[in-house]
Specification:
By secondary structure, this protein is an alpha/beta fold. It is about 40% helix and about 15% strand. The chain has 2 domains: about 180 residues, Aspartate Aminotransferase, domain 1 (Alpha-Beta Complex), CATH 3.90.1150.10; about 260 residues, Type I PLP-dependent aspartate aminotransferase-like (Major domain) (Aspartate Aminotransferase, domain 2, 3-Layer(aba) Sandwich), CATH 3.40.640.10. A 7-stranded mixed beta sheet has the order 4-10-9-8-7-5-6, sandwiched between helices. Strands 1-2-3-13 form a 4-stranded mixed beta sheet. A 4-stranded antiparallel beta sheet has the order 11-12-15-14. The two termini are about 40 Å apart. Bound molecules: ligand PLZ.
Length: about 450
């Protein structure tokens, strides 16, 4: 039986904020767990890192062998407020000591109502809004589609190239990439159509031109009268941190409004201060009819939401939205603590500061290394796209090698992109500047040594 190393303390920002490697990576205790895992856990579930977590907080994850890594992934953009954030941990502890679950559909409670009020106020648009709570991002996306269909009486849904919306049956249909998300898992839900995205690095189109191309596709292949919703990530996450050209999102939103189509911003990855505003839609000056929210909203607990125009959110029949765990009280308590911190500590401003550090360092690296074709993103959601020098040909092998080598040197970095050739940086906003700079030093060395 594996035991954790003796000096593992509790998590949160009090953990030493340092890169510290005590064993080879993975160490002996992680290797022991890996052996147990391969006998017990489905081989279809992957992990990008070879080491097992013991504690985390501030900007570090500490493994079972006592190695401390700089965390540039936040568990895929979840621990934005910090891992084991003390306010979140205290709020959850207080809540679970009072009650762990009643089911909001049976005996409701105040924290669900408060989270709804807070998200109604925080999302873009000064109009009457309502919210329904769920547990995962995919569930939020599915429910946004249900609400849009109930409101419009129409069935079709438009999504975009490179989109990622989840792994459930409807959201698999909405997700673009086959491997590994969809392969062998069909048949997929019908009435999902895909339009071309704005991808400045690859298409060179300005925003209005790219939007006109997408709208042409939608009008010719779907028809506005059949369309319930357009679902779009303001900055694509899994698809490669693709920031559409300025004007693209507003043009799509305007077209949707003119045609009675519900405009859904999937802010599961971009939301909750990640991009330097409460929501990325704020930065684009758009007011989505519905916003899907998950990941960062509850400091690591599973909570998701659909927030949007009251008359749209009220469209399904009574009882049409719900689920056993949706708006679980521990997750709601965590969300309230997270949203308090977002406001008190001005987390969007902190994300903009992180953006400054990431852009300065990554652009300097790109100037030295022609394999970095593009540096892009917003706030604490920044990426580099790796290509064969002088081309736009994706180099996925390099992205994989860099992420693997970075982990060996104490830095957690994730990859993404339809072609798997994008390295993405999603640090928790609680990471100290000095540790972020140190992690970027390590990354620079890893790039230099990767041939
Ligand atoms: N919408 C925009 O980014 C989740 C998933 C990674 P769930 N992204 C990370 C993986 O391999 O499963 C995501 C997202 C956007 C929806 C989702 C789905 O959120 O909480 O994973 O269901």
């Amino acid at each position: 039986m594996t035991t954790l190393s003796q000096d593992v303390s509790t998590g949160g920002p009090t953990l030493p904020q340092e890169i510290r490697l005590r064993t080879e990576v993975p160490g002996p205790l992680s290797r022991e767990l890996a052996a147990r895992r391969s006998a017990a856990v489905s081989a279809a579930v992957g992990s990008s890192m070879p080491f097992y977590a013991a504690t985390a907080g501030g900007g570090v994850v500490v493994d079972v062998d006592g190695n401390s890594y700089a965390d540039l992934g936040s568990g895929i953009a979840v621990t934005t407020v910090g891992n084991a954030d003390p306010a979140v941990a205290a709020a959850v502890a207080e809540q679970v000591a009072r009650f762990t679950h009643t089911c909001f559909m049976i005996t409701p409670y105040d924290s669900y109502v408060e989270v709804a009020e807070r998200l109604n106020a925080l999302t873009p648009g000064d109009f009457a809004k309502k919210t329904a709570l769920f547990s995962t991002g995919a569930e939020a996306v599915e429910n946004a589609v249900k609400v849009a269909r109930a409101h419009t009486g129409r069935q079709a849904v438009v999504v975009f190239d490179h989109a990622y919306h989840g792994r459930t049956n409807l959201t698999m249909a909405m997700t673009a990439k086959n491997m590994p998300y969809k392969n062998g898992f069909g048949p997929f839900a019908p009435e999902v159509y895909r339009a071309p995205l704005s991808y400045p690095f690859r298409d060179g189109l300005d925003g209005p031109t790219a939007a006109a191309r997408a709208i042409h596709t939608i009008e010719k292949q779907v028809g506005a009268a059949n369309l319930a919703a357009v679902v779009l990530e303001p900055i694509q996450g899994e698809g490669g941190f693709i920031v559409p050209a300025p004007g693209f999102l507003p043009a799509i939103a305007t077209w949707a409004k003119e045609n009675g189509v519900v405009f859904v911003a999937d802010e599961v990855q971009t939301g909750i201060a990640r991009t330097g505003a409460a929501f990325a839609s704020h930065l684009e000056g758009i007011e989505p009819d519905l916003v899907t929210i998950a990941k960062g909203v509850a400091g690591g607990l599973p909570l998701a939401a659909v927030t949007g125009r009251a008359e749209i959110m009220d469209a399904p029949v009574l009882g049409g939205l719900g689920g056993t765990y949706g708006g679980n009280p521990a997750a709601c308590a965590a969300a309230i603590a997270t949203l308090d911190t977002l406001e008190r500590e001005d987390l969007p401003a902190r994300a903009r500061r992180v953006e400054g550090i990431l852009f300065a360092r990554l652009r300097a690296l790109a100037a030295r290394d022609p394999r970095i074709g593009d540096v892009r993103g917003r706030g604490a959601m920044v990426a580099v796209e790796l290509v064969e020098p002088g081309t736009t040909t994706p180099d996925a092998a390099l992205a994989k090698r860099i992420a693997t080598d970075a982990a060996q040197h104490g830095v957690i970095v994730l990859t993404c992109g339809t072609d798997g050739n994008v390295l993405r940086f999603l640090p928790p906003l609680s990471i100290p500047d000095a540790l972020l700079e140190q992690a970027l030093d390590v990354l620079g060395t890893v790039f230099e040594n990767a041939h």
